[in-house]
Each structure stands twice: as structure tokens, then as C-alpha cells.
Design brief:
By secondary structure, the protein is mainly alpha-helical. It is flat and about 65 Å long. Belongs to the TDE1 family. Keywords: Membrane, Transmembrane, Transmembrane helix.
Length: 423
């Protein structure tokens, strides 16, 4: 009897333990599901915040343009500021653009410094990045107003620094574009899982190459109609040579990257060449574009607005592409990790503030640009041409670097000596 009672007691204890374990497992499951829901909500909030920062960047661009072209008429009280000089000259036109750009740079630099260490969605810095918009609005206004009290020599120094920052931004943008082209090429390359993509990839590559060749052919009569247009002839001819070299290397047996990546890159290079020639000052013989008048016609205004949108989109797309600049790209994304690098995102926008300043003043700190014009002048032309050549150089290096590394590895391998056979 005593043995049976002890067995009953053991069973009761075991049942109670098993029930407690079940309750604990249910609680853990419920808490993990709740945590997943909270992480998902924070992730969506963080992704939406990107567009808010993009709108802020767009508004500061428009503010810089307004100060440059109409600030002297709309804000006459700025003449009374000592930092603006006689007649307010140092707060409008070129100096006005630099002051607004400095304010935008300060705002995104502060955001970079306060969010660069954020790695998890439950951190307090994540809440600061994705919320507190009223406080950040006050911070933005203060950042835009304070530079108008700085001395002109400080603003001029910022303009010199902005040239370097704009150049860094162009390099980051090039790397992001080339990485996107590489990804797109790998996506459309045929394999066992995506056999139908072979035809579509070939069609897209052919389309890009036809567009590139048509662009080269059209630029000759439009921008090099006479033999005296030697500079434009050189730009267009050298671009055609770059296209040929990229295609030949891409199809080489040791590289074998196919048509698509080189076709997309060819279109991008032709676009940069066309944009560079379009940035030349209007010349009757070689660049017969209309002179920009005081108000601008509808084509000038439309192209200006498109250029503004392109600046914002280029900055936004580069800012969210932090993976292209990671040394290790095999890291696993956890559930509570931030969806993109906040620090890199704000750093790109701060450099983008320097870049749009250079476009509005045509990379010239001592010359005022005309109304409704953007990125026009010989300095802008040469910046874009160098950008084109640099883009082609980076792309060609990405094509041949695996072959060069493989050759070095083979050369450094010691030949295996055949060992004596054991009896």
C-alpha cells in the first residue's frame, strides 16, 4: 500500500511539472510573437522615416534655389544683417546657396552623429531616428537660420570643403550604380532555376546597346556639327571607344560577363557624356541650346525641376544602399536589426547637401549663375567628364580584377612534386 501511494505522489508531481512546463512554453511563445510584432512595427516605422528625410532634403534644395534666384527680392530684411555685407550680397546668389547648404549639412551631420551606432530596433536611438519629428523640425529650422549669421569667410571655407564632399558623394554614387548593375546582371543571367530569363536578358542587353549607339550617333550632328568643335568630338569619340572596350572585355573568354552589364554601363556612360556636353555654356556652333533668360521658358523650367528630382533620387538611392559598401556581405540579418544603416544614410545626405550646392553654383564659388539654371559651366562639364571616365575605369577593374587575382594565385602556387611510390 505504501509503495502504491508513493507512485501516485510521483505521478502527481510529474503532472504538475509537465503542466508548468507547458505554461512556460506558451508564455515564451506568446512573448516571442509579441516581440516579433513590435519589431515589425518598428521596422515599418523606420522604413517610412526614409521618405520623410527625402522630403526634407527636397525642401532644402528648393529653399536654396529660391534664395539664389528670388531671395534678394523676397527677403529684403536680410540686408540689415552684418554678416550679409553691403546690400545683402553675401546672403544671396552663390553665398545664399552655400548658407542653405551648410544648414542642411549641419542637420544631417547631427543626425549622423546621433544615430551612427544604432544597430537594434529596440534601442532608444532608433526611436530618435524614426520619430520626434517636431523636435527635428525645430532643429532643421535652427540649422538653416544659424549659417546666415556666419561671416562670409567661414561660408567661403565651407564652399571649398563642399567641393571635396561633393566629389566623395559622386564616388559613392558611382559605386552604388555599378553594384546595382552587377546585381541586375547576375539576376538576369540564365541558370537552372531561371532558364526563361536568358531571352529577356539578351533582349534587355540588346536594347541598352542600341540606345547607347543611337546616343553616340545623335550627339555628333547635335553637338559636333563642325570640325572646329574639337572638344566635343573628343568627348563623344572617347566615349565610343570606352563602349567598345567595355564590350570586348566583357565578352572575353576569361571574363565572360555577357552583354547585359556592359550594355547598362554603356548607356550610363553615354548619359554622362551627354550631360557633360549639355553643361557647356551655350555656343552657337557646338552647343546650340537656348540662352536662359530671366524667367525661363517651360522647357528650361521642366528640365530644372527634373534635375532637382534627380538629385534627390540619387541621394536617396545611394543612402539606402549601405550593403554595397560593406566589407562582409554574408552577414545574416536578424529580426531585431535595423533595416538599413542609419549612420551611412545620414552621412550620404550630408554629402548630398554639398553636392547640390555645387550644382546650384556650377562648382564656381566666385561666379553667380543665371535664374532657372543648374550645373551649367565649364567646371560642371569637366566634373561630369571625369566622373564618366572614372565610372568606366571602376567598371573595367571590376571585370578584370577576378582574372588578375586568379592569375596571381596560380603563379604563387608551388608545383606539387610527385612523391616516391612506396614499395
Amino acid at each position: 500500500m505504501s509503495g502504491s501511494s508513493e507512485a501516485v505522489e510521483v505521478k502527481v508531481v510529474d503532472n504538475s511539472l509537465s503542466n508548468s512546463e507547458v505554461v512556460t512554453q506558451e508564455e515564451l511563445t506568446g512573448s516571442s510573437e509579441l516581440y516579433s510584432v513590435e519589431c515589425l512595427a518598428q521596422r515599418k516605422k523606420s522604413l517610412r522615416a526614409r521618405y520623410t528625410y527625402g522630403i526634407i532634403f527636397l525642401l532644402t534644395n528648393l529653399c536654396a534655389w529660391f534664395v539664389r534666384d528670388y531671395g534678394q527680392r523676397v527677403f529684403p530684411h536680410l540686408h540689415n544683417l552684418q554678416a550679409c555685407g553691403i546690400g545683402g550680397h553675401d546672403c544671396f546668389r552663390t553665398m545664399g546657396v552655400l548658407r542653405v547648404s551648410l544648414g542642411c549639412f549641419i542637420f544631417f551631420l547631427i543626425m549622423f552623429l546621433t544615430t551612427c551606432k544604432t544597430s537594434k530596433l529596440y534601442e532608444a536611438l532608433n526611436t530618435w531616428h524614426s520619430g520626434w519629428w517636431a523636435l527635428k523640425f525645430v532643429l532643421l529650422i535652427m540649422s538653416l537660420v544659424v549659417p546666415f549669421f556666419f561671416r562670409p569667410d567661414i561660408i567661403h571655407l565651407y564652399g571649398e570643403i563642399a567641393r571635396v564632399g561633393a566629389g566623395i558623394f559622386l564616388i559613392l554614387q558611382l559605386i552604388s550604380v555599378i553594384e546595382f548593375i552587377t546585381w541586375w546582371n547576375n539576376y538576369w543571367m540564365p541558370n537552372d532555376k531561371r532558364k526563361p530569363s536568358c531571352f529577356l536578358g539578351l533582349f534587355m542587353s540588346t536594347l541598352f546597346y542600341i540606345a547607347s549607339i543611337c546616343g553616340i550617333v545623335l550627339m555628333y550632328p547635335l553637338y559636333a556639327p563642325k570640325a572646329s568643335c574639337t572638344l566635343n568630338i573628343f568627348f563623344i569619340t572617347w566615349t565610343a571607344i570606352l563602349l567598345t572596350v567595355m564590350m570586348v572585355i566583357s565578352l572575353h573568354s576569361k571574363v565572360n560577363r555577357g552583354f547585359l552589364s556592359s550594355g547598362i554601363m554603356a548607356s550610363y556612360v553615354v548619359f554622362l557624356c551627354w550631360s557633360a556636353i549639355r553643361s557647356e555654356p551655350a555656343i552657337k556652333e557646338c552647343n546650340p541650346q537656348k540662352q536662359v533668360n530671366g524667367n525661363g521658358d517651360w522647357t528650361t523650367i521642366l528640365s530644372f525641376l527634373i534635375a532637382i528630382g534627380a538629385i534627390v533620387m540619387a541621394t536617396f538611392s545611394t543612402g539606402i544602399d549601405s550593403q554595397s559598401f560593406q566589407f562582409r556581405k554574408d552577414e545574416i540579418q536578424l529580426e531585431d536589426d535595423v533595416p538599413y544603416s542609419y549612420g551611412f544614410f545620414h552621412l550620404v545626405f550630408s554629402l548630398g547637401a554639398m553636392y547640390f550646392a555645387m550644382l546650384f553654383i556650377s562648382w564656381n564659388l566666385n561666379h553667380s549663375t543665371k535664374k532657372w539654371s543648374i550645373d551649367v559651366g565649364w567646371a560642371s562639364t569637366w566634373v561630369k567628364i571625369i566622373n564618366e571616365w572614372f565610372a568606366a575605369t571602376i567598371y573595367l577593374w571590376k571585370l578584370i580584377s577576378p582574372v588578375v587575382r586568379q592569375t596571381k594565385i596560380i603563379d604563387h602556387e608551388e608545383p606539387v612534386q610527385p612523391g616516391a611510390e612506396s614499395p
